[in-house]
């Protein structure tokens, strides 16, 4: 083997070693980013659950506010309550189909 071939071989070995080190670094970085992505996904899921719960609470609050008779307008309250009862009846009828 000539001196030039040996120099090329050492150069190739150095580049392969450097490539192996870069591969290890990239592999570690990928694992780190996977962990971050997993944590973000868990956070998104928790926030979505919270949004769903808050939307349900808001709907319940709106319904309770509709039924509220604090202004003394009993006729208006009866109309609203009748409308709610009709909506419930429609839902039950759809479920029975």
Task: Indicate the topology.
Layout: H1 3-67, H2 74-96
Major sheet, described briefly?
A: none
CA-atom Rg in angstroms: 34 Å
Structural class: mainly alpha
Average residue-wise pLDDT: 88
Number of strands: 0
How much helical structure, as a percent, in the residues? Answer: over 70%
**Silhouette:** rod-shaped
Tally of separate domains: 1
Element order: H for helix, E for strand? HH
Number of helices: 2
* Cα separation of the termini: 88 Å
| Low-pLDDT residue spans | none
**What proportion of the residues form beta strands (DSSP E)?**
under 5%
Protein architecture, described:
- This protein has 97 residues and is mostly helical.
- It has one domain.
- The protein contains two helices and no strands.
- The longest helix has 65 residues, at 3-67.
Put the structure in a nutshell.
This protein is an all-alpha fold and 97 residues long. The chain contains 2 helices and no strands.
């Amino acid at each position: 083997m000539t001196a030039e071939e040996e120099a090329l071989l050492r150069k190739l070995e150095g580049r392969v070693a450097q490539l192996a080190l870069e591969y290890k670094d990239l592999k570690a970085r990928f694992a780190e980013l996977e962990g971050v992505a997993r944590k973000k996904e868990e956070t998104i899921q928790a926030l979505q659950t919270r949004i769903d719960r808050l939307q349900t609470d808001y709907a319940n609050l709106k319904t309770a506010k509709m039924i509220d008779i604090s202004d003394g307008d009993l006729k208006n309250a009866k109309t609203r309550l009748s409308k709610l009862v009709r909506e419930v009846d429609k839902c039950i009828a759809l479920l029975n189909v």
